[in-house]
Amino acid sequence: MIVTQFLVIAAALFSLGVYGLLVRRNAVMVLLAVELMLNAVNINLIAFEAVIRSSQAVGQVFSIFVITVAAAEVGIGLAIILMIFRNRQSANVDDFNLMKF
Amino acid sequence: MELFESGWGLTLIVFLPLVGALVNMAIPKTNETAVKQWSLFVAVVTFALSLLLVVNFDYGAGDRFQFEMNETWISAIGANFHLGVDGISLPLLVLSTFVMVLAIIYSWDHWEEPHNPRGFLSLMLILATGMNGTFLALDLVLFFIFFEVVLLPMYFMIGIWGDKSKRRIPGFSKEVETRLYASIKFFLFTLFGSAFMLLGFLALYFKSGDFGPRTFDIPELIELGTSGAFSGTFAFLVFGAMFLGFAVKVPMWPFHTWLPDAHTAAPTVGSVLLAAILLKLGSYAFIRISIPILPQEAENWAPAIAVLSVIGIIYGSLACLAQTDMKRLIAFSSVGHMGFVMLGISTLTDVGINAAIIGMVAHGLITGLLFFLAGSMSHRYHTREMSRLGGNQKLMPVMGAILAFTAFASLGLPGLAGFWGEFMSLLGAYNPLESLRAEYLGLFRTAMVLGAIGTVLTAGYMLWMLQKVNLGEPGEEWVGHEFHDADRYELTAWVPLMVLIVVIGFYPNVVFGATTDAVVSLVNTAFGEGAATTAAVTDVLGS
Amino acid sequence: MTHLVLAVEAGAPELVSGGFFAQWAGIMLVAPFVAFLLIVFLGKRLKYLGAEFAIGAMALNLVWASILFVQNMSHGIFREENFEIASIGMFDGRALVFELGWVVDGLSIMMYFVVAFVGLLVFIYAVGYMHGDVRVTWFFASLSLFAGSMLILVGSPNLIQLIIGWEGVGLASYLLIGHYWEQKENSSAAMKAFYTNKVADVGLILGAILLGLAIGDFSFAAINEAAANHAEPLEAVAFAGGLLLFFGAMGKSAQFPLHIWLPDAMAGPTPVSALMHAATMVTAGIYLMARTFPVYQDLVGGEAARQWMVPIGVITLFAMGLLALVADDIKKVLAYSTVSQLGYMMTAVAAGGYTAGLFHLFTHAFFKALLFLGAGSVIHAVHSNNMSDMGGLRKEMPRTFWTFVIGSLSLAGIIPLAGFFSKDEILATLDHEGYQAFMWVAIAGAFVTAFYMTRAVALTFFGSYKGHGHPHESPALMTVPLVALAVPSVIAGFLNIPGVEFGGFGNFTTWVGARVVAMGDHHPEAIDWTLAAYGLTAGGLGILIGWLLYGKDAETQLARDRFEIPVLYPLLRQKYYMDHLALGMVGFTKGPAARAVDWVNTYVLDGIVNGVGGGVRLMGRFVYGGLDQRGIDMFFNGVSAGADSAGLALRRLQTGRVQQYAMGFVVGALVLVLAIAVFN
Amino acid sequence: MTFQSWISEPVNWVYLAIGGAVLVSGFRVVTTQNVVRAALYLVATLGGTAGLFLMLSAEFVAWTLVLVYIGAVIVLFLFGTMITRAPMVRDTGLDNPKARPMAAVLSLILFVVLSYTMLTAFGSTEIAQVGEGTDTRILGEALLGRFVLPFEIVGFILLAALVGGITIARRDLTPLEEEERGSV
Amino acid sequence: MSWEIDYLALAPEIIIVVTMLGVLALDLVLPRPLKYWTATVGVLGLTFAAIPLIIMAVDDVGTRSMFEGSYVVDEFALVLKGLFLAAGYVTLLMSVSYIESDRYYQGEYYFLLLTSILGSVVMASARDLIILFIGLEVTTGPLFMLAGWRKGDLRSNEASLKFFILGVLSTAILLWGMSMLYGITGSVDLVTISDSVALIAGGSVPGFEPLLGLAILFIIIGFAFKVSAVPFHFWAPDTYEGAPTPVTAYLSVSSKAAGFVGLFVIVYVALPAAVDIWGPALWLLAALSMTVGNLAALRQENIVRLLAYSSIAQAGFMLVPFAAAAVSGGDQLAVGLEATVVYLVIYSVMNLGAFAVIIQGARRTGTGDIEGWAGLGKLDPRLGVLVAVFFFSLAGIPPLAGWFAKFIMFQSAITSGGPGGVWLAVIAAVNAVIAFYYYARVVKTVWFDAPAEGASEAEDAPVGSLGLAIALTAVATIVIGFYPPIATFFGEATRTLITAAGG
Hints:
The complex is a heteropentamer.
Chain A: H1 3-23, H2 27-52, H3 58-88
Helix pairs in contact in A: 1-2, 2-3
Chain B: H1 2-5, H2 8-26, H3 32-56, E1 66-74, E2 79-85, H4 89-106, H5 117-136, H6 140-149, H7 151-161, E3 166-168, E4 175-177, H8 178-208, H9 218-226, H10 232-249, H11 258-265, H12 268-293, H13 295-321, H14 326-347, H15 350-381, H16 392-395, H17 397-410, H18 417-430, H19 434-469, H20 488-506, H21 509-527
Antiparallel strand pairs in B: 1-2, 3-4
Chain E: H1 7-29, H2 36-58, E1 64-66, E2 71-73, H3 75-100, H4 106-125, H5 129-147, H6 154-185, H7 190-201, H8 209-226, H9 235-242, H10 245-270, H11 275-297, H12 303-327, H13 333-365, H14 376-379, H15 381-395, H16 402-415, H17 419-447, H18 464-482, H19 485-493, H20 496-500
Antiparallel strand pairs in E: 1-2
Helix pairs in contact in E: 1-2, 1-4, 2-3, 2-4, 3-4, 3-10, 3-13, 3-18, 4-5, 4-10, 5-6, 5-10, 6-7, 6-8, 6-9, 7-10, 8-10, 8-11, 9-10, 9-12, 10-12, 10-13, 11-12, 11-17, 12-13, 12-16, 12-17, 13-15, 13-16, 13-18, 13-19, 15-17, 15-18, 16-17
């Protein structure tokens, strides 16, 4: 088992997340894509931790923080989406371009 | 005097107007008389202080900075609050404080819309601080600050009180109010130049670190510069950067285009101050900063400056001939006159630099007066179109006579102040600096001839303007109009200028008494002993 | 500061310092300016509107100048007072200074006298002439300004002060020519005069720079001594400097082709023409040449320059004289005559005749002023400048007539009037210096001179009156100066009969020769009667033919009788022959030749001037409209417009769609990564 | 290490299975046209990730992931999906088709860049001590020891998300309702 | 290994936390008309939080280090914490009347704002990737919601959404970079990281350079998003325009400053050895931000949007010393840091002032469109003067504080000595001129244009806390302009960041 095999999965998930972020119109879907990306980071951290084996399991600690923050972000994001939906009856992100130029 | 020896005198001259402006703000807006009286009082006190300076100045040591004030200011970058006056800055400082007094007197009951004397006079006093400070600053950062400070009040003067007529600007699709276009153009041009000037200053500061602690101090930099510290591409670029800043301010061709617009659009007093003092900041900076700090580069750049100056002279005069607006004509004349100033500087000789200084003083007096007159006339005629004017001499004999007097002074009539600047810069151009002669003697002498032709053109447009405006029968449209000839405020403002024009015309030592020692020593330290003499000559006059 | 000057050449006169009057000669220079200020501020309240001050100052000057003149007769005076006005830098280890002051020597004393004498008379005359006219106060103020500037000019010890005076008289000339500035022609004429002079002044200024900077001193004494010593640096610039100075002189002294302003300058009131455009101001160029004479005389380069100057003078004297033949305006006749006479003076000085040129200047001042004042008197009477509106005035205006005739004869060079001696001396100089061909032209010029003067006299004073109203003699205020001027017009010639000295008082030659440097010009021992005969013959012939043509008008029987009797009567018996000859000659001179010259003058010279003027205006319009507004300004505006549209374009990137932002974000990140990868 | 020896390790078979599942479901998350399915695919991805974590001896994190995500976050997502009334069936408007090619190219490049950099750096670095899980005590001590400060502070982001989320997501009362409430 | 906690060093954070909770609790009990007391408590809390800072600044203990050096209170941290507190203080003052004037959930608003301040205060001390990350998230997270605080306003909603989506994208990218950095160095402690990075940059660990470069750039991108540097600025104009103005002010100052703090800490403490990688990157970001920000600002019609682009450009200017020092070899890093901090301090003062004036001006004129402000100077000269003061200060015109910011920016760029620095200075010089145009345009509209028909003449002096905010910033702007050592003092203090890292 080598570390790269996990990292490649992470890279792939990250790239897929980016793809989703760029093509998804529904805001909830965008949020899902972001979760993919954050998850990819977690894979990285855990994989590195497996190699490094630091005395304080720093990688895992880090990933716990990332998971926590990601959860908070989801909460914030959904709240924003709800607020917007209430006003616009739409959750499509490209419907919002009141402000430009 | 103790006040001056301690250095506080100069500080007072610089900041008194600013304090005056702040106090102005505290006076109720409606109490215009109090505002005017207070402003005039401040200006007069400042002028009186500068006269005290004149009295206390040690003319035997005009080449040294006197009454210095040198306090730490921004220690982090080694910038000091360093003021000082020498023979070169003294006349310009006095000119500045003097014209300010006259300008305030003049504006006593000449208000452009939207009136508001409190605002206007406060701006003028702030302007005074900037101008006086520029002439006295001996630290590059301080210099930069004052150099920039003058922009703000002038911007507001032009923008708020300026010419409200609309004009088609080449390159713009719609008509723009002159004041709006002019104010921003004025600011942008100067800012553009001074941004690069600042880069130049900083480069000097940086380089001075090779020879000791980094410094912004002008005397220290001069010492370094004259000992050859700055050279090569570095110096070339630094000079170029500073050149941009100063040349825009002067203004030299082809950076002059802000000037006609700004002058034309500015309210009368604004034009006067712009012409009389603000334009001098640039040329003064050449003498104070560029030449002594970067003497070798000054030599390299001198031919280019000479060429641009001469182009400016000819070009400005020709442009004048195409004007229909009297004020714009006077504005363009400044391009030509400042061309002579810069031609003098470009020779790098004591004669040439002296020519530049007296040229500056004279231009300040004369063109200032011309703008006063143009303002007063457009105040009465509500037009500046020369084709509609005419017969002014008949309608307003006193004003017409003063206009004629000033026009002749402006075209460089010998015996009036304007002559010396022109004549001496030609004199300087005949024999430029020794080291420039090998390669560029022909160039400078051609410049001399072209400059002399420029004086002819100058006479041409000035006479033409006089004929258009002053002579002939008044136009039909003025029949039945009552015209008030020059009133007492106007005369109070103008007569001192006229007297000075004559006095300097017949006794230029008024200026040279202060400057010559300083200039000679400047040239000697920058370019070595005896640089300003012609080829050896057998002294036929014997002992 | 006073220049300590040593006589450097054997034969230079011994000079004395001249005492009180020489020491304080500066008062003469200042007095008119004081008068000017007094007139401007107080003049309007006085009876004569300020003329009092002007006349007073000139009277003082005349007294002062006369005393100096007399002092100078017995013993040559040289005195210089200098006051430094500007120390402008270093030259060869010493200060390079500008000074003001006055010089009192033979040359300047002569000029002081002429200016004061003619000036005083013209001022007095003007009181009468200008009575009831517009802006009289201002007129006298300007006249005083002129007198002061002229004295500053002639009293100048150095080139700088000379330039001040030089342009000062130009200014006064501008003011006075344009006295009636309500009409555009007048203000244009004033502009033309000032402007032409300004062009010439370029030469003066550059010449002054060249000469002054060659030795580091602008004073005439220093320059002249350096020239007398053949100083090397001065020699190097002598040719260019000499010609440049001469160019300046050409403007002020109306030498071909810069004479064009002078005829137009007649737009001013007649006293102005008399004083400035005949007697004094226009001679400033001659004066300058005389002042710097050693530069032209002693230096090789100066000599070379003279070879260019003589032909100019000769062309001026002849061609301009011809023009006087076709003018109807009496003042124009006199103006062309003045130009022609100035040509004589310039020719003389350029040929090396220092004294000859100055002497003609001296005498010419009197009789030409006389003629102008006489003409003014006539104009005053008939309210027209045109001779076609005059005629037969000799009866109504006897004093004017007689003095005018005296002046004309003097101008025509008829013995023993002043003009004869001075013109003769010029011929002698040309002969002696080897300019024989030019001498013959000068003699021909004398013929022309006599011819047009006769014509003027005949048309004005003889025949029948063709104008309107009833002309009458002018008031005494005007005629007394005429008489006073007639006297020297008659007798001034005797002051310089070659070889004749007035006891210990010398003669004109010695008086104007009282200079620190000997002028080294040739002084004939006695009158060369052969030359005198040529001159006289030419003059006489001119008068005769002129008379034959114009004098025998139908109603001028008496006049014809009087002139037919003594000498000309026998010739008139072959009057057809003479008529034909005369007609042929005149026909040619007055016809094609004169017309050709006139045409050249109008269309070529004036055309060039107008063309240059128009061209400059056009250029101005191009520079402003084309280069400045559409070029440079457009450029800067274009730059800002470019920034503006770049801004507009950049705004478009901000589409408002968040996913495009994200796209930009990712692209930016990738580009940054790749850029840094490539960079490293 | 050759592919031969790599593939011969059984644990890598497990890896291939889980990894494949993670990738496929991850792919479906961003490509499926059904909203609910996308959320469920995310569950699968996260579950697979948790499996990977177990392989990497991070039991605590793995179970945290399962708890936090599959237990809470996904439910949140489903609620969000339903509240925003996204159709539960296939929805062709879910993607922005115009953005697809560009997005695909970009993410591909990104993938290449990310993989390349990691491969050059880590190549075939082995993961030692497979299967030996990290002692949760270590984690606990780290979290409450050295990392106590971020641990405390991260609580505030959750609190902020809670407070802020409620505030902005709640329906504002109409003025009439307000008045009724205000009287209470 | 000791977990001794220096409570004095943590006191500011603790006081802020207590204030936050106090605000939240107070909000529950206060009746609606008295809710403004929450603001008062918040303001007081921030004031109290400054006290321990002052105590620490005065005493001679020097650097206080906790949690194995992962949390450090040195002079750098003190200065920036002070800046965050001060900026937060002014923002709170600005918020009071704005938030009061509508149903804006005051208690929650101040709670979130204080949370964000807490995050940035934490960031200033963070010397550890995790704390840095958490600090950043705590700073940003509440702002996502605050941007959408005007719930009924679609623009505000949109602002929030755009900010959020791009924010999480940048978080993901930042995290990727951090995870890689952890993977490479095996540590999250910045000082330890710097040793490893030095090894890699020295070439002793082949193969790691590309990954290190990627990690560094991704981290920089994460922070560049916060400072709204081009091309990661897209959110800024829209969010600024849509968000409530006090929040915008906070975003443009504190949030941006937090981004800079992150950059400083990462770059100076962890990555001084990798200057070859981040130097050119910052150079590019600086040049692009200045140019794009300024050019795009030229044609803006909305004043807040104009300031948004202005703040993008200003971020570019702030990056200049930093980047110039970096591309010129790295021995000038301290100078660059100092200059950027000075710029940041001055920028905070004047930009907050500008926003405060905008709030007042928008209230006075009833519009955020620049055209709508025509003639304001005549109607309300005091406000007009303030507009001129702050906008010209932003433009860098002496004698207002902005000049010194620009000056020291140029100074450090030139004295960095390298051609890269000089070129950047030239670009900055041109941009300073362009920038003047749009700042002057606002002043022009306010002073030179005629007021619309029927505009009211009455002066409406800013009252209460907003007035205080304006007064504080205006005085600071002018005083610093005349006596810049006030600002350089802060700049010099921050050198500890570099000396601590042994740089």
